[in-house]
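We now fix the convention by which a protein and its fold are recorded. Think of the row as the fold of the chain written in a discrete alphabet. Here is one such record, which you should read through line by line.
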Amino acid sequence: MTRNATPLLVALITTVLAATSAFAQAQEHAMPQDPHAHHAAAAEPASEVAPAAVDWTPAEVRRVDAAQQKLTLKHGDIRHLDMPGMTMAFRLKPGLLSAEQLAALKVGDRIEARIEQQQGQLVIVELRQAAASN
């Protein structure tokens, strides 16, 4: 490295460190003052949000693929993923259903599912029987 580049490099590093410090201080001031709230917020990843009633999507089972741990569903709108209703296959979260529970699902069963995007795939993270309609 030339002698002329060294002062430029030092100035660049100083600027980056100052900006990082200023950002950290701004974040610190933006955090809630309640120490319990701070720890609760820090303990929960931003990608995991508490399930709400709108997270449950009504669906009808169209195919059960036990070997691949997939369900093909004709589902309603998945609002939190901005996805319209359609028919498609979803992976099941590992361990969500036992082999017996999966075998008990039949084409035509009405269910409700919580579906999340995980590592670029849509995954059923919770499943329940749909409420009986009158």
Summary: The first strand starts at residue 56 and ends at 65. Residues 54-129 form a domain with the OB fold (Dihydrolipoamide Acetyltransferase, E2P) fold (CATH 2.40.50.320). The chain is about 30% helix and 30% strand.
